[in-house]
Structure to design on (527 residues):
């Protein structure tokens, strides 16, 4: 296969925004997107008329046909470049890649990337869980009563079987990310949790309990991407894309080539190669964490630790702010917010903020290079990106 | 357990022979005539070599538990009354993996690597769903 053309230093993220997060019953999903978009645009100092491209993902609570067009209509934007990307949780990183490609090839100059839904209050909890059933194969998985937590639980069991990963190590991921969320003013979760509380939480699908599973939030997130050239004279400190790569191996768990080797290795390799960087150069990582097993696997596949060592890395505290590699400094999807594609998008928002600096007790000191990994489906679709606050 | 509330197999053009065979208590999988590769999820062409010359072959109906979970909170309300129950990925003797429940009195004691054999669960109107039990 041919190496993808480099997108290094071609584009920058110049504004990021989060909507109000948690239970926000007075707002629609589109409203949450609009609020996040407005905050991102304000931060960049650009005007609405500067936006000539818009990318969004999907919504379970407001399942419009042509969501990309619907969002533009709602925002009053008439772009030359627009699409709805449906790669599940990988969508935000994939959207950044599409945005970078469009800007690098001159199809657009300034693109709004936006996602989110009112998943906490726009659907009952049971309706939200039922809607997510659609991730299972309709004919060969759903008749067996599987669930998204159940599919990830099978991956966790296999990891524990092959590598000896411990139940307690999974729980440490949840405790770790909650501690970070408490340092974030807009995180959905506001109370500390202990290891015992994670281990004793309501069981969902062995070995995963309630606190091993991501939140269901009302939330929208957005970022503004523009050319590196245009970014220079804007009011915010630009954060440059250094490398980005995708890899897709399956959708349904029954078709996964392996339960211990996924596509993050390949997506990471492409991103590192483009950036000319390796795991040792990364100062902070925002890893998709829909379930506690997932960031453990991603740490391993992205080369931060050897296969089987991800659990111990979390348990030993290396993923904490101040540790060897702080992971999910905003609190991740386990404690900051999860609302459809917005979950992974907040990893990008947080990476940008860490690279700009000035986050107080949440700041990773001296952060210059950040890695973000998004995955969608059942570890099916992967996209890794590397950002830096300097062109390097 | 109210069997008729559980999902009934839905056959389509790709899978009708699979579900017809299940009604005869046979587990069948796809085999490519060009490259001999076996696969589980039925489709129009071989995912290995894209040949459209495929046949159905009888699987032995034995395999091992590749992984599993005990579901303690069902997402699908039809399964709420069944918790705790086991959902597993079975690696068939022939190689391909498929999803199924582990049924039987000792189902909750299942471990990765356990040998299992196919059984068929009545889902109403003569429709049978391939399932597994510990061998
Ligand atoms: Zn073939």
């Amino acid at each position: 296969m041919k190496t993808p053309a480099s997108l290094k230093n071609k584009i920058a993220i110049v504004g990021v925004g989060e909507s109000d997060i948690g239970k926000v019953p007075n707002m629609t999903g589109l409203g949450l997107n609009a609020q996040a978009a407005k905050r991102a645009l304000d931060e960049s100092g650009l005007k609405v008329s500067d936006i000539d491209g818009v990318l969004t993902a999907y919504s379970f609570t407001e399942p419009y046909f042509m969501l990309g067009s619907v969002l533009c209509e709602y925002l009053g934007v008439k772009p030359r470049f627009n699409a709805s990307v449906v790669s599940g949780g990988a969508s935000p990183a994939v959207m950044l890649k599409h945005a970078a490609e469009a800007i690098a090839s001159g199809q657009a100059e300034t693109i709004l990337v936006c996602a989110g839904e009112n998943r906490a209050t726009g659907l009952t909890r049971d309706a939200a869980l039922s809607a997510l059933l659609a991730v299972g194969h309709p004919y060969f998985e759903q008749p067996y009563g599987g669930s998204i937590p159940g599919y990830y639980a099978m991956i966790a069991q296999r990891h524990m079987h092959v590598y000896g990963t411990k139940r307690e190590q999974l729980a440490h991921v949840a405790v770790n990310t909650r501690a970070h969320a408490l340092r974030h003013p807009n995180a959905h979760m506001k109370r500390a949790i202990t290891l015992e509380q994670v281990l004793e939480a309501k069981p969902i699908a062995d070995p995963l309990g309630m606190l091993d599973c991501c939140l269901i939030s009302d939330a929208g997130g957005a970022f503004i991407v523009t050319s590196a050239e245009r970014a220079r004279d804007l009011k915010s400190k630009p954060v440059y894309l250094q490398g980005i790569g995708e890899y897709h191996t399956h959708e349904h768990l029954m078709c996964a080539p392996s339960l211990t080797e996924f596509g993050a290795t390949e997506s990471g390799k492409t991103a590192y190669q483009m950036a000319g960087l390796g795991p040792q150069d990364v100062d902070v990582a925002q890893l998709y964490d829909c379930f506690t097993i997932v960031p453990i696997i991603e740490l391993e596949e992205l080369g931060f630790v050897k296969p089987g060592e991800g659990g111990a890395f979390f348990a030993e505290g290396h993923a904490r702010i101040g540790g060897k590699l702080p992971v999910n400094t905003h609190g991740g999807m386990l404690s900051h917010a999860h609302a459809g594609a917005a979950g992974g998008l907040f990893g990008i928002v947080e990476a940008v903020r860490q690279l700009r600096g000035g986050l107080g007790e949440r700041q990773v000191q001296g952060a210059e290079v950040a890695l973000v990994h998004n995955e969608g489906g059942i570890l099916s679709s992967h996209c890794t990106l590397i950002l830096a606050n300097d062109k390097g | 357990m109210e069997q008729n509330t559980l999902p009934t197999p839905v056959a389509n053009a790709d899978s009708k022979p699979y579900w017809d065979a299940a009604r005869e208590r046979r587990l069948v999988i796809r085999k490519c005539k060009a490259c001999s590769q076996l696969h589980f999820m039925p489709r129009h062409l071989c995912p290995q070599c894209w040949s459209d010359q495929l046949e159905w072959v009888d699987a032995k109906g034995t395999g091992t538990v590749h992984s599993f979970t005990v579901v303690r909170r069902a997402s699908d309300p039809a399964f709420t009354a069944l918790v705790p129950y086991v959902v597993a990925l079975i690696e068939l003797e022939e190689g391909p993996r498929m999803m199924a429940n582990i049924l039987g009195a000792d189902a909750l004691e299942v471990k990765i690597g356990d040998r299992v054999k196919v059984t068929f669960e009545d889902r109403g109107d003569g429709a049978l769903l391939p399932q597994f039990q510990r061998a």
Observations:
- The mean pLDDT of chain A is 96.
- The interface with chain B takes residues 126, 129-130, 132-133, 137-150, 153-155, 157-158, 161, 202-206, 208, 252-255, 259 of chain A (CB under 8 Å).
